[in-house]
Design brief:
InterPro entries: AB_hydrolase_fold (IPR029058), AChE-related_enzymes (IPR050654), CarbesteraseB (IPR002018), Carboxylesterase_B_AS (IPR019826), Cholinesterase (IPR000997)
GO molecular function: cholinesterase activity
Structural class: alpha/beta
Keywords: Disulfide bond, Hydrolase
Number of helices: 15
Shape: globular
CATH superfamily of the largest domain: Alpha/Beta hydrolase fold, catalytic domain
Organism: Pusillimonas noertemannii
EC number: 3.1.1.-
CATH topology of the largest domain: Rossmann fold
């Protein structure tokens, strides 16, 4: 059934199915095309008539995902006019429901907030809340740094503008603009940290959920970001000194931009390095900092925090690489020193001692999980607690028997949004038993929804979930047998 809603900027037409209203392709900014390409987002101007929000949101232009072999493929129409929201709500009334804002992951280069993987209707129905999926610019179109073209972080500015739009309009969808929860996974979690660390307007945000944030992947220095930008221009055959450089870039086909972006990614690829060439960068005003995750934790100022990782994060990246099965211990040590620094070699030696019967590639995966995910995430949680935030920590460690990826990066996503048909062929699920998947999903969803409503993920379907503190680092292990445990999270 088609329905309509009046917003501050115009009228929308959406659909109502199974008790949930959904509006897709809702524009929160002017299309970043032509003269607006490589520029900060511009708020959407009011429109006349009724805007059709019954068709799926488009997908930001992107090359193939580096995790397609793990997560599977998703469908969607790519279009540069992608600054859109997907909004799901149980009621178009004045009930003032909590609002859950979803920032997708994908290494700042792939993904979308409105695809079937992240359909918010089940969460909206189960939790009686408004769920908003956000699209933002990706890759070079969203994070290029080049003098006279872009200062970077355009995708982050997109997210900040989306938050402004949500605060202004969500009451029309039955939501409370003063009761927002920001939820992000991987790059989406890093984005949440950057929004706080960069002092963007996060008014109304009471809670944050950070799933597998790659907090050990610091934002690029201005120098490194400019170097990637130079390589990008070189791949396009453009001079960085051209007076009309931005104009030239604005006229190029999107396919040519994506091809140059992929060429830069291939040229800078290093075995074991999860950092994309186009991502958050440190701005001139310190929008992000070297220890930005700690700055973000301090900036939370009492915002409730639910944060966690999967047990084998880096398996998603390394276990699909044939080299992992044959790489020598000496090669791994060299890679660790080159990418993660000399101090990380000591961690590698400890991992080797703890797991003497594993091959070197697995040791490398454990080291990356520790350096990029587990250790900095624990630091974030500890600092957030110190600064007055109620903080809850989890490790998702269910392991599908038929998957070589174990409890890998992204594995918790089907359990947060629900194991729908969209995830049916995801290799990381390893053909897991449907009833078991649904049971774990019920436990995870009830905890997430409890946190959104009350700032506390405790639920009858889990053991008592206590806060994470420096003195008592309590961690909820989420699996088919959930349990709480005190642990230091020093090494995997």
């Amino acid at each position: 059934m088609d329905v309509q809603v009046q917003l501050s900027c115009g009228r929308l037409q959406g659909v109502r199915q199974e008790g949930v209203y959904q509006f897709s392709g809702v524009p929160y900014a002017e299309d970043p095309v032509g003269a607006l390409r490589f520029r900060p987002p511009v708020p959407k101007a009011p429109w006349n008539g009724i805007l059709d929000a019954t068709r799926p949101s488009v997908v930001a232009p992107q090359a193939a995902s580096r995790l397609a072999a793990v997560m599977g493929e998703f469908t969607g129409t790519q279009d540069e006019a992608c600054l859109q929201l997907t909004i799901s709500t149980p009621g178009l009334d004045d009930k003032k429901r909590p609002v859950l804002v979803w920032l997708h992951g994908g290494g700042f280069s792939s993904g979308s907030g409105g695809i079937d993987w992240y359909d918010g209707r089940e969460l909206a129905r189960l939790g009686d809340l408004v769920v908003v999926g956000v699209n933002y610019r990706l890759g070079a179109l969203g994070f290029l740094v080049a003098e006279g073209v872009s200062e970077g972080n355009l995708g982050l500015l997109d997210q900040a503008l989306a938050l402004e739009y949500i605060r202004k309009n969500v009451a029309s969808f039955g939501g409370d603009p003063g009761n927002l929860t920001l939820m992000g996974q991987s790059a989406g979690g890093n984005s949440i940290a950057a929004l706080f660390a960069g002092k963007h307007d996060v008014s109304g945000v009471r809670r944050v959920i950070l799933q597998s944030p790659a907090l050990g992947m610091a934002p690029q220095t201005a120098r490194a970001a400019r170097a990637s930008g130079h390589e990008f221009l070189k791949a396009l055959g453009l001079s960085p000194d051209a007076a009309d450089l931005r104009s030239q870039l604005q006229k190029l086909p999107v396919a040519q931009i994506l091809a140059a972006q992929s060429e830069v990614a291939r040229g800078g690829a290093r075995y074991g390095d999860t950092t994309p060439p186009f991502q958050l960068s440190q701005g001139e005003e310190g929008a992000t900092q070297q220890d930005f995750h700690l700055s973000a934790a301090e900036a939370l100022q009492g915002v409730d925090v639910l944060i966690g990782i999967t047990a084998d994060e880096a398996h998603a990246f390394l276990m699909q690489a044939p080299r992992t099965q044959i790489v020598s211990a000496e090669e791994v040590a060299h890679c660790v020193r080159d990418i993660y620094g000399a101090s990380a070699v000591d961690c590698l030696l400890q991992i080797e001692a703890r797991h003497p019967h594993e091959y070197a590639g697995l040791h490398f995966s454990r080291l990356i999980t520790h350096a990029v995910f587990a250790h900095p995430t624990r630091q974030f949680a500890q600092r957030a607690h110190q600064c007055g935030s109620r903080t809850y920590f989890y490790i998702f460690d269910w392991q599908p028997e038929a998957s070589p990826f174990k409890s890998c990066h992204c594995l918790e996503l089907p359990f947060v949004f629900g194991p729908s048909d969209a995830w049916a062929h995801a290799p990381m699920l390893g053909g897991g038993d449907g009833e078991l998947l649904a049971d774990i999903a019920r436990k995870v969803q009830s905890a997430w929804l409890s946190f959104v409503h009350a700032g506390d993920p405790s639920t009858d379907s889990l053991p008592p979930w206590q806060c994470f503190t420096e003195q008592t680092p309590l961690v909820m292990h989420l699996s088919d047998s959930p349990h709480m445990r005190t642990e230091e999270l020093c090494l995997p």
